[in-house]
Amino acid sequence: NFSLEGRTYVVMGVANKRSIAWGIARSLHHAGARLIFTYANERFEKPVKDLAATLEGQDALFYECDVTDDEAVKKTFTDIKNDVGTIHGLAHCIAFAKKEDLQGEFVDTSRDGFLTAQNISSYSLVTVAREAAPLMTEGGGIVTMTYLGGERVVQNYNVMGVAKASLDATMRYLANDLGKESIRVNAISAGPIRTLSAKGVGDFNSILQKIEADAPLRRTVTQEEVGDTAYYLLSDLSRGVTGEIIHVDSGYNILG
Ligand code: 0WD
């Protein structure tokens, strides 16, 4: 039985209806899960609540959680523990880099820009996993979002590519630590999707066009396709899988 009925999942990083996190939320909702949404600051409270209200029969909960603040992360999961008790998994769909660091040459990256990208896009998974794991009393799944730019050079992705490389390694070390608690940690490497964050990447259109021209499937991927892979990784369908990166990218990564 691979229904998520009776299970609760935390979805972090819904900014608007284009967000990958929103695709994940819809897939989990369709599978019967109860959802908990976290958002970075009050600016996103209403948009997230309005979107969640469109999920029929969903009794969602909402918490503000700025992942750069350890105390805020701690408080979020203490509140979740008090309000719902056990959770069964979490989707971490959070990243940030300064716009000036997502164009031009990587060699010009400032120390501050480098550390900001690492802080929000990679370290956040450590602090979130540490606070969320104790709530996964029946075991669980953690999924994060990565990108090919962490494995090889992608024009303009620059500082975020280095942050994704760090996130990938973080995911593997967490998988090793949390495996003994029956918590699995995996990443989805999504092909480029037009979202708020993607707008910051220089010449994003040409990255999309390259996928349409060259990827084995000759098309870009959707939030729904990423969402269904997250459902797989957060359900018992993937019970033997941890520390893995699954590419949902129309096969683009296999090209030399
Ligand atoms: O092509 C793409 N769009 C790809 C995105 C390809 C491959 C991977 N990804 C990754 C991104 O790098 C990111 O890790 O997917 C993840 C989700 O990104 P997205 O869906 O493309 O972008 P967006 O809709 O802008 O969501 C980014 C979230 C926002 O959500 P919330 O609800 O928290 O506002 O990251 C959030 C941002 O606000 N965020 C933060 N959340 C908590 N604390 C913070 C922070 N300090 N900073 C940014």
What does this structure look like?
It is globular and about 45 Å long. It has 7 helices and 7 strands. The protein has a single domain, classed as Rossmann fold (3-Layer(aba) Sandwich). The relative contact order is 0.16. The longest helix is centred in the middle third of the chain and has 22 residues, at 111-132. The mean pLDDT is 97. Helix 3 (70-84) runs parallel beside helix 4 and helix 4 (111-132) runs parallel beside helix 5. It has 256 residues and is an alpha/beta fold. Strand 4 (89-92), helix 4 and strand 5 form a beta-alpha-beta unit. 39% of the residues lie in helices and 15% in strands. It has a 7-stranded parallel β-sheet with strand order 3-2-1-4-5-6-7, sandwiched between helices. The structure holds ligand 0WD.
CATH architecture: 3-Layer(aba) Sandwich
Count every helix, treating DSSP H or I runs of 4 or more residues as helices: 7
| Mean pLDDT across all amino acids | 97
- Following the backbone from N to C, one meets helices and strands in this order, namely EHEHEHEHEHEHHE
**CATH superfamily assignment?**
NAD(P)-binding Rossmann-like Domain
CATH domain class name: Alpha Beta
Please state the CA-atom Rg, rounded to the nearest Å: 17 Å
Helix content: 25-40%
